[in-house]
Amino acid sequence: MQIMTSSSTSPTSPLAAAAHNGVAAAYFNFRGAERVPESHVWKGMHEKDTAPVAAADADGGDAVPVVDMSGGDDAAVAAVARAAEEWGGFLLVGHGVTAEALARVEAQAARLFALPADDKARGARRPGGGNTGYGVPPYLLRYPKQMWAEGYTFPPPAIRDEFRRVWPDAGDDYHRFCSAMEEYDSSMRALGERLLAMFFKALGLAGNDAPGGETERKIRETLTSTIHLNMFPRCPDPDRVVGLAAHTDSGFFTFILQSPVPGLQLLRHRPDRWVTVPGTPGALIVVVGDLFHVLTNGHFHSVFHRAVVNRERDRISMPYFLGPPADMKVTPLVAAGSPESKAVYQAVTWPEYMAVRDKLFGTNISALSMIRVAKEEDKES
């Protein structure tokens, strides 16, 4: 076990500079860990982290739904609607992204995390620089324990500028990496637009003449995206650590490419239990986010999910987050909601919603509940 901090590096190294600049992330040597240090031991901080893991029922009742979108027909649309309503997440096949393209981007992500610590530290998140760079995302630093994971976050338009920090010589490794990430971005962006159309069709809102036609067009034209690369290293005692704590995504929806080693789990209710998403080769995972929950007036719901780690094998995960621009008010489409066709949630921008989430961090209060419109009977009482 080794924790690499400024005290174990020279004053001029990237690691020392990162620490000097206030980058609040420990550069932990997962490869050298023979046991789990206390800094990474989790003991069920939140009740959702203690729900049992479910095996699939004999009738498939706890099997994560699989949606084949290759035909784009009514059956596929119905499957999307059912999965988004009942689960908030599903496996997507028949999406048209080649297995070779997915293998290329996964291989490049693995190569990035295999770099020496000093090389990765050149891309460290800058103090006050937002959510871009290598290291621990700022919100994860608020947990009392550390995750068993490495991460790198970047916006697709900045791929080449961002990774010049890691590969300043801009050599062949740099170009191979950037080309794979640009291909992934292009594929996921196009797929996101196709899936968005299926979501709106499932809600009966598709087409320019439909109630949500103009909204769909505006969302499609203004979708913002972020890529986050995760490495969940093998762990000597996986039952005592967390790869990624239970959470919901805040945006519209997320595509997740995971390696064949399973580790993503979705939370099912009544009774609460975690269901592991299988590592199906070539499949992508779709997770509905909070703002899509708001947009669809609660018709499609966001889902708590988390990541666990493996004793024997590393696991790569690559979420591709899609959401609105910061200045867009996400307004519930009432036709997608309750029978009385009233908005269940207040209209909210992404920064406004994140401010609510941040304020409630560490509590059991849902941010969605805080922007829910009170019913008349609630007002009277």
Automatic annotation (TrEMBL):
GO biological process, one term: gibberellin biosynthetic process
Keyword vocabulary terms for this entry: Dioxygenase, Iron, Metal-binding, Oxidoreductase
Domain of life: Eukaryota
Cited PANTHER family: 2-OXOGLUTARATE (2OG) AND FE(II)-DEPENDENT OXYGENASE SUPERFAMILY PROTEIN-RELATED
Sequence ranges assigned to domain Fe2OG dioxygenase in this UniProt record: 222-324
Protein's name according to its UniProt entry: gibberellin 3beta-dioxygenase
Keyword set includes Cytoplasm: no
EC number: 1.14.11.15
Gene Ontology MF term list: gibberellin 3-beta-dioxygenase activity; metal ion binding
Signal peptide: none
Needed co-factor(s): L-ascorbate
Catalytic reaction(s) noted: gibberellin A20 + 2-oxoglutarate + O2 = gibberellin A1 + succinate + CO2
Family as reported in the entry's similarity comment: Belongs to the iron/ascorbate-dependent oxidoreductase family.
